[in-house]
Amino acid sequence: MATLTAAVRARRRRRPAERPPGGLGRTPISYAVLTLLGLFAILPVLVLLFNSLKTSLEIGTNPLGLPTSADFSNFAEAWRRGNMARGFANTAFLVVGTILGTWLMAGTAAYSLARLNPPAKRWIENYLFVIISLPVQMFIVPLFFLWVKLGLIDTLIGLVIIYVALNTPFSVLLLRTFLVGIPKELDEAARLDGANEWQIATRVIMPLSWPGFLTVGLVAGLGAYSELLFAVTFLIDVEKMPVATAFLQFSTGYSQLYNLVNAAGVIIVIPLIVLFLFMQRRFIAGLAASGTKG
Amino acid sequence: MTAAPTTLAEPTAREERKPISRRGRRRRSRLVAIAFLLPALALNLLVIGGPTVSSIVYSFTDWNGITSPEFTGLENWTNLVQDESFWNAIGHNFIYLLIFLTVPLAMGLLGAFMLSRIRRGAGLFRVLFFIPYLLVSVITAQIWRNILDPEFGIASALNAIGIHWLDGVYFFADENLALYSVAFVDNWHFWGFLVVLFLAAMQGVDASQYEAARIDGANAWHEFWHVVLPGIRPTLTFALTIIAIGSLLVYDYPFILTGGGPAGATDVASLMVNRTAFLERDAGYASAMALALSVLSAIFLVLFGFLRRREEEV
């Protein structure tokens, strides 16, 4: 493992040198354009942060600028009034449930497709490709009334089942590419030692394909954290809403209290930004591969 | 795995199984393969496959979601063709599409190209560009609702320095501005993703081609037009595909910022499907609408699929 991470690090360090040597580049124009674009991207985020530190009085006189004094009481107030402890508990349930469910469902299916040679393999793979490009509007209406019938409407577990099902097709195809690359001799050897399929999958293959699982987990978890359409459609009770959906209610309820609403927004966004700064590469790879969000 | 051999590989059992030969073992491994696939496939049929098929069937009925549906033939479809509010919504989807095929695409290409030409600070810029894409849609909407608020936003900030251009401009409540304002917010959220996507593709372009262009005395524009753009064409097609599908199916920002209002000025197809199905309880009609929408997005997929295949042949 240590050698593997070392190799990854070495490659990372080598990369910039391989870039096209921008001979004409490194011009001031590039930096000027990039700075403008960077400000366009980041200034609105800073407004969110600044206004979360102001009193509601100050927002009236100083709507977009730096706060004159940092008032952290907004965060406690927003946490309490928005009942964010409950929201985060619901979100945690959704995120963890979705990640574990996707790992289990997509992991087993990808393992079968990549290494066990099931019948109708091509058909199943083609089916997955079609499913990936299917718009959710195609099945959301009957799904809603099916969930009503099954008593899964307005339950978090019902939403987790949907998220897992939505994540599985893409995850199967991604994990399959990781699993195909692991030499067959490894599981042959394990099989000779008397390990069964489940043991081979969890003890031999999983440890070798963890980057794939990490990417899949990240995409599934991020999706569950931010998803809106299914959450607002399939959950009715405020008590059950994840933090993002509850925020929507909160922001309409306190629409003029920008300091409070923005403080709640900062609380919701910070975990995402921190996670991103730690795992940039995997974030980008995962989101580019899924290409669904947005 | 260390403990497994002692419990599993009992010599007698192995001896007995030997005569069953390879065929028996192969059948057993087939069953295992199916067992590993089954949970995912069953879940998929329950949530996606099954409801998709019933959506098609229900589109020919007067289903209200609860009582058993009555077959109505093509009634939903003839109604849909004449439904002005549906065409109004689809029209907004196409305006959205036009905006997204130009503004974020240009910004994404510009950002990525400039990033590919610098070395110092590239990582920082990439992080800055990507942060809006990370934000949850409800927060992005909140940021811009605040900034574009006539009393507590940019209009009031401009007033402080004596500029009154934006006084009384309600970006999300003005019929003529609302759709563009919503698209603007969505674009702010999205374009950084394109930068990162395009940058990765540009770094994959063969460096010798840049050398060749430079020896020929190409300037930055020539380099972009003749080396970079052809080099990233597959990624460009991919971006066009997700933009087209995303614009047809857009839901989040119109839902959060305007709810389709004012007076239907930002209504889009997805909003209408949900409203028709879950508020008006006209699930059969909503299914027809959803199917029309899906066919439309399938057309785009096939179109871009062809484009991609042609590129591979070239």
From TrEMBL, chain A:
InterPro entries membership: MetI-like, MetI-like_sf
Protein name: ABC transporter permease
Gene Ontology CC annotations of this record: plasma membrane
Residue ranges of coiled coil: none
Keyword terms, alphabetized: Cell membrane, Membrane, Transmembrane, Transmembrane helix, Transport
Family label: Belongs to the binding-protein-dependent transport system permease family.
The organism of origin for this protein: Phytohabitans flavus
SUPFAM superfamilies xref list: MetI-like
PROSITE patterns: ABC_TM1 (PS50928)
TrEMBL record, chain B:
N-terminal signal peptide: none
Residues covered by region (Disordered): 1-23
Domain ABC transmembrane type-1 stretches: 90-304
GO cellular component: plasma membrane
CDD domains linked: TM_PBP2
Residue stretches of biased makeup (Low complexity): 1-11
Keywords: Cell membrane, Membrane, Transmembrane, Transmembrane helix, Transport
InterPro entries noted in UniProt: ABC_transporter_permease, MetI-like, MetI-like_sf
Pfam families cross-referenced by the UniProt entry: BPD_transp_1 (PF00528)
Subcellular location: Cell membrane
Transmembrane feature ranges: 31-53, 94-115, 127-144, 188-206, 227-251, 285-307
Membrane topology, record value: Multi-pass membrane protein
GO biological process: transmembrane transport
Similarity remark: Belongs to the binding-protein-dependent transport system permease family.
Name of the protein in its database record: Sugar-binding protein
Species assigned in the record: Phytohabitans flavus
